[in-house]
Amino acid sequence: MQGNKPSKKKNFFPIRKPLEEYLKSHNRYIELPVKYNDLLRYIASTELLNQKGENTYWETVYFQEYDRKELFENLTKIYSLIKADGDQQILEHLDVARIDYCTFGNTKPFRIRIINRLNDNYDHFYIKKADASRVYGLELEYLLSPNNLNYLVDGDTLIEEHIAGIPGDDFMTVKLQENEFNQIRIAKEFVKFNERCFVRLLGDMRAYNYVVDITPDIEGNQYRIRAIDFDQQSYEGRKSFYLPQYFKENNPIIFLGIQHMAPETVRQYQLEERSLIAGRVKASIKQVNELFDVMTHDEISQKNKVAQLGEELAYHHKNDIFKKCLNMGEIVLTNIVLLLQKDFKQSIVFKDLRNGLE
Length: 358
What we know:
The chain is α+β, with helices and mostly antiparallel strands. The protein contains 12 helices and 10 strands.
């Protein structure tokens, strides 16, 4: 099997008018006081190291004093937009503690650290270059996953809230040596996460692109794996790219699953997750249809990748309808409908492609 890496640096796809109108209708597209390019005016930077003194691929950036005051005030306003629907009463004790810039990755994000001066508690959010495929990834995460998610768009600027959790690679280093009961729960959650990614075709979920949220329970812990990188939403052409189980970085959790779960148990958890996704689709069917009305007419990948993924999914599902898909939006919609209809008799009604799937 070909190595599970992106074929090359991903192209950016602009947010076209139909997607902009969809975002506006759902309060995702608003005028922002700071744009991505405003942050590129920094005058100096220093390497940001972790607690072990290792390179983090982030740099702390600094601005001219005459820019700094207005910039920091506007950044706290953006924080109020994503955390309190713009209520500026929360701004009184907030300030920007630090701005970091990452040169690693497609979006080259800025990470804004917001601090509460009363208790030194801090939070983060990110400012990135907006990309249509990433926005579709965020919206599908919001609609089809168990995770709430706040983001905002203005032109070529994307604001994302911070998703808390232990980075997957760190988690596998320090948290897998749990008791057997917790190990079973970890393996179960990975199966469900793997299924969520494949149903909606979110790719590149190697260990550093997701976090693990741990919640103490009456007996043991509960685990939730959450994607934090949505750059590879239905962009690549290889089917295996959308299955986290095929990334070698995830092998430690895969081995837990092999150790603790029989194939029929894995199948049960897959069906459970599809059932939950089906329920979310039914609960938000109007908005899901609105999203796919836009996505199935948009361009978020290259034609050769669309053709390759169509061929591979047609073979996987034993259904040639994928070969008729003209773009990634149609492929995603077809994959969702087929996977949900394959195992459930629920009345899930999509506008696009419905006739071809019934």
